[in-house]
């Protein structure tokens, strides 16, 4: 009996934290800025738990019955929370009210659980033992959930099925509570039937979870979803319409196959073609292998090191037939070494220099990515750059995020680098910006590899010419302690999307 009671505490703590993590992760995927989303959701959830704990004082009779009913409610609402959020984002304009409403409701119900369970257990243990054991197993359950969520649940099940699985766990706890406390439950069979009904509903959702996820996500994208994958770090979506394959990470478009060559040719060739003796190339980010594809067009390149955080991303683009066809099998080339690591940490821990460095990270929409656009990061990259080498940096749109773009330029300059800003038109994105940086003057190349689809020797100088509406504006450098670039980026893209 004792072991079962403490296992109950552990499980309901794990379930409660999983629902909180699901809400935070989904909000980060759909709204961006993970720091803001997790901070506000955790704060709201803890406040709601306090409200639930306070409300428990008004439950004076039928405590066990109320506890079982709360477990079933938490299981149903928490279990379907991810699906509700997906659908509300796709089909309504009230995602934020739904998000925080669900967080408040689930938090209040979770806040009721522990006080009620402690009152039930007080009849079997001394008060000091109840408090000590309940809090101990509550924290153990929270630890287990925090480890399982990123390492196992999200990569294997995804957010919707993870929530449904733990909803089922809550319902199972409710069911076995009818057995644990059978001596004080006159209506035990009714509660058991309700538990079975809830379990069947959640079980059906779990069984059809992938179909439900696909159905929800198809409403978010204009084209049919052909692949959906959760990794430890992000949600990967591939859509396809006729000959156009599109990659989305956490809901943000990364490339469209019909015009990605413009982006990747502009990212790689203006810099690398100006270094005819370059043999060692480093690519930070770019786990899709498309920048690697362009680099491998230079026969003098002897080695390419790709450092990308997400193993799920690089594995997918090294094995999926449609994707290897797009990147020409670049990640499987003998000259390429793929490293799955945080670029900041890898650069700090490894020595060696490179003739050309490509920095191809997602836009700085949150502080986790924003650190990779800071002066501290660029100084670290500079230590790995040959004296006569260049780095090429993906730098968002100088038209739609003008101050963000010039903040990146100022940050590179603050790291002691000479900068050569340029831009290109990519139909799927509009005007897009890059920055070449190094310690030496830049001269546009006189030759390019054969069979490029967009870039020409004659056209390269024009890329470095900025019209009035994209010309330089005052912008602060991005530093680790302020991350001003993330604020610039949020303000500018929010203004565009209004």
Can you tell me about this structure?
The protein is of the alpha/beta class and 498 residues long. It has three domains: 2-218, Up-down Bundle (Growth Hormone, Chain: A); 225-254, no CATH class; 257-497, 3-Layer(aba) Sandwich (Rossmann fold), CATH 3.40.50. Helices cover 55% and strands 15% of the residues. It is built from 18 helices and eleven strands. The strands form two sheets. The protein has a seven-stranded mixed β-sheet with strand order 7-6-5-8-9-11-10, with helices on both faces.
- Beta-strand percent range: 15-25%
Helix content: 55-70%
Query: Could you tell me the mean pLDDT?
Result: 90
Number of domains: 3
**Strand runs, count:** 11
The largest β sheet comes out as: 7 strands, mixed
Number of helices: 18
- Which shape, going by the Cα principal axes? elongated
Look at the structure and name the CATH superfamily of the largest domain. Answer: Vaccinia Virus protein VP39
Structural class: alpha/beta
Could you spell the SSE succession in H and E letters?
Answer: HHHHHHHHEEEEHEHEHHEHEHHEHEEHH
The CATH architecture of the largest domain can be named as 3-Layer(aba) Sandwich
What is the CATH topology classification name of the largest domain? Answer: Rossmann fold
Could you give a short description of this structure?
The protein is an alpha/beta fold and 498 residues long. The chain has 18 helices and eleven strands. The mean pLDDT is 90.
Give the SSE map.
Blueprint: H1 2-31, H2 34-55, H3 63-79, H4 81-91, H5 95-121, H6 127-180, H7 188-207, H8 209-218, E1 225-230, E2 235-241, E3 244-249, E4 252-256, H9 260-272, E5 280-285, H10 290-295, E6 303-308, H11 311-319, H12 321-326, E7 336-340, H13 343-349, E8 354-360, H14 367-370, H15 375-383, E9 385-394, H16 402-414, E10 418-426, E11 430-438, H17 460-463, H18 484-497
